[in-house]
Amino acid sequence: MIGPLAIAAHVLSLVVAVWAFVEFFRQREPSRPLFIGLWAVEALVAVQVVALVVGLADGSRPTGGDMVTLIGYLLTAVLLPPAGIVLARMEPTRWGSLLIGAAAVIVPVLILRLGQIWNG
Predict the structure, then answer these.
(1) Fewer CB within 10 Å, N- or C-terminus of the chain?
(2) Domain 3-119, classified CATH 1.20.120, yes or no
């Protein structure tokens, strides 16, 4: 795990989540910058996932959990933001903003759990 990158992913993801929830409560559909924000979260998560996969390829193994759990969290972390974007595009109302916020608020939990599994 890359510590500073994990912190950046947490902060950006929570900022996007708060922004999306504010848009939801203001009864606004998701805007283009909101989608870009979630894509930026996806980019940070993807870099973190690639770093973990490279660590696995080098022979490192998770110390705090089993490999199946780690792979499940890796896949979920990398696929959740694009799924949130697709669902929000399918629902171009205020509920789309809520979907983006929900996806963005789950990402820090996934990254935190990945760190716990990897580092023990």
Answers:
(1) C
(2) yes
